[in-house]
Amino acid sequence: MKKTFLPIDAYDPMLDEEDPHSLIKAYRDPATGLTLGLSKWFFSGAGYDMEQTAAGYEMRQCEVVRYLDSEELYEIRWLCNG
Question: What Cα–Cα distance (Å) separates residue 50 from each residue in 53, 54, 56, 59, 73?
Fold first, then answer.
Protein backbone atom coordinates (compact mmCIF):
# COMPACT_ATOMS: atom_id res chain seq x y z
CA MET A 1 0.00 0.00 0.00
CA LYS A 2 1.40 3.36 -1.05
CA LYS A 3 1.74 6.04 1.62
CA THR A 4 -0.50 9.05 1.09
CA PHE A 5 1.88 11.64 2.50
CA LEU A 6 5.59 12.38 2.34
CA PRO A 7 7.14 12.28 5.85
CA ILE A 8 9.47 15.21 5.21
CA ASP A 9 10.48 15.69 8.82
CA ALA A 10 12.28 12.34 8.80
CA TYR A 11 14.34 13.02 5.65
CA ASP A 12 18.12 13.07 6.14
CA PRO A 13 20.23 13.61 3.00
CA MET A 14 23.18 11.82 4.63
CA LEU A 15 21.17 8.64 5.27
CA ASP A 16 18.40 8.50 2.69
CA GLU A 17 19.35 7.14 -0.71
CA GLU A 18 16.19 8.24 -2.55
CA ASP A 19 16.29 11.42 -4.61
CA PRO A 20 14.06 14.03 -2.90
CA HIS A 21 12.91 15.44 -6.26
CA SER A 22 11.74 11.96 -7.32
CA LEU A 23 9.97 11.49 -4.00
CA ILE A 24 7.96 14.67 -4.52
CA LYS A 25 6.84 13.38 -7.93
CA ALA A 26 6.11 9.89 -6.58
CA TYR A 27 3.83 11.23 -3.82
CA ARG A 28 2.01 13.77 -6.05
CA ASP A 29 -1.75 13.25 -6.13
CA PRO A 30 -2.79 13.10 -9.80
CA ALA A 31 -6.28 14.44 -8.99
CA THR A 32 -5.07 17.62 -7.25
CA GLY A 33 -1.50 17.94 -8.51
CA LEU A 34 -0.34 18.43 -4.90
CA THR A 35 2.27 16.54 -2.94
CA LEU A 36 1.10 16.39 0.66
CA GLY A 37 3.41 15.96 3.61
CA LEU A 38 3.53 16.12 7.37
CA SER A 39 5.86 18.47 9.21
CA LYS A 40 6.29 19.76 12.74
CA TRP A 41 4.10 22.74 13.65
CA PHE A 42 5.71 24.43 16.67
CA PHE A 43 3.67 26.26 19.28
CA SER A 44 4.70 29.64 20.68
CA GLY A 45 4.11 30.92 24.22
CA ALA A 46 0.75 32.70 23.94
CA GLY A 47 -2.15 30.31 24.33
CA TYR A 48 0.11 27.25 24.34
CA ASP A 49 -1.52 24.30 26.07
CA MET A 50 1.10 22.03 27.66
CA GLU A 51 -1.32 19.10 27.63
CA GLN A 52 -1.71 19.37 23.85
CA THR A 53 1.79 18.01 23.34
CA ALA A 54 4.70 17.71 25.74
CA ALA A 55 7.22 18.38 22.97
CA GLY A 56 5.78 21.79 21.98
CA TYR A 57 4.80 20.70 18.46
CA GLU A 58 2.42 18.50 16.56
CA MET A 59 2.55 17.02 13.08
CA ARG A 60 0.40 18.98 10.63
CA GLN A 61 -0.39 18.58 6.96
CA CYS A 62 1.41 20.72 4.43
CA GLU A 63 2.01 20.91 0.70
CA VAL A 64 5.54 19.98 -0.37
CA VAL A 65 6.40 22.68 -2.90
CA ARG A 66 9.94 21.64 -3.84
CA TYR A 67 13.30 20.48 -2.54
CA LEU A 68 16.06 23.07 -2.08
CA ASP A 69 19.35 21.36 -2.93
CA SER A 70 21.49 24.23 -1.64
CA GLU A 71 19.93 23.97 1.84
CA GLU A 72 19.06 20.25 1.81
CA LEU A 73 15.50 21.10 2.90
CA TYR A 74 11.99 20.74 1.57
CA GLU A 75 10.06 23.96 0.95
CA ILE A 76 6.54 23.59 2.29
CA ARG A 77 3.29 25.54 2.38
CA TRP A 78 1.05 25.04 5.41
CA LEU A 79 -2.50 23.97 4.67
CA CYS A 80 -3.74 25.38 7.97
CA ASN A 81 -3.10 28.59 9.89
CA GLY A 82 -3.25 27.75 13.55
Answer: 6, 6, 7, 15, 29
78 forms beta bridges with: 62
pTM of the prediction? 0.70
Walking along the chain (82 residues) 10 residues at a time, the average pLDDT comes out as: 59 75 91 90 62 68 91 87 62
Q: φ, ψ for residue 26 (rounded to 5)?
A: -65, -30
Domain boundaries, the chain: 8-78
Work out the angle at residue 38's Cα, subtended by the Cα atoms of residues 45 and 29, and round it to the nearest 5 degrees.
145
